[in-house]
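Quick one, probably user error.
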């Protein structure tokens, strides 16, 4: 029985942290591409695409992330496809991030004054060029605080991946707790690691929100 923490145990926590960051990065980057596609579909003016994107958002925002992890992991297994936990959790988190970021960015796009869109249409600017050069740069800037806030939630949400056997920071903490019989110390360290990863991002989001908020009249 191991009752103390040594270099080997801290190395395991470091590896778990790196897997947490890797999962968060993959989910956020690929979910960002998916979210952009969802936001564009929601605002393209084509009713079929708008309804499909709206349904996608409602499904993934209206169901627990834990349930989505189970469905992706066991659903792929039902197709007789062997999949390891890393692939399953990556797919589940990417789909979840696509829905949430799509809704965040959809709201930002629709917050841009309609006069800009109408002026672009009057000049004969095509939808894709209009979005790329006029609307999206403004919308993405407006959405930065909410986007960073979601990234913080995503990092903390990766702890749910332990449920299907993916060994990230939270699961590493559980394994070390079972080995050392010092759960309070282990989980305190795990909590501090999450804090030091998420706190700078939270502060950045708050700073961006203050910077981008309209100037209030005194």
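Nope, works fine. Designed sequence:
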């Amino acid at each position: 029985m191991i009752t103390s923490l040594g270099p080997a145990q801290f190395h395991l926590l470091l590896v778990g942290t790196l897997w947490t960051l890797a999962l968060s990065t993959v989910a956020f980057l690929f979910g960002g591409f998916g979210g952009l596609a969802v936001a564009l579909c929601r605002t393209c003016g084509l009713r079929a695409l708008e309804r499909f994107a709206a349904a996608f958002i409602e499904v993934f925002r209206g169901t627990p992330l834990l349930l989505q992890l189970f469905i992706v992991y066991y659903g792929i297994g039902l197709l007789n496809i062997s999949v390891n936990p890393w692939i399953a959790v990556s797919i589940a988190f990417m789909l979840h991030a696509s829905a949430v970021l799509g809704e965040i960015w959809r709201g930002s796009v629709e917050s841009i004054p309609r006069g800009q869109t109408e002026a672009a249409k009057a000049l004969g600017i095509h939808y894709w060029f209009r979005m790329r050069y006029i609307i999206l740069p403004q919308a993405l800037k407006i959405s930065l605080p909410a986007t960073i806030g979601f990234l913080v939630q995503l990092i903390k949400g990766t702890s749910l991946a332990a449920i299907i056997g993916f060994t990230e920071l939270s699961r590493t903490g559980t394994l070390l707790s079972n080995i050392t019989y010092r759960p309070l110390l282990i989980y305190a360290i795990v909590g501090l690691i999450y804090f030091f990863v998420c706190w700078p991002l939270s502060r950045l989001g708050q700073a961006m929100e203050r910077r981008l908020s309209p100037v209030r009249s005194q």
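DSSP finds eight helices and no strands in the chain.
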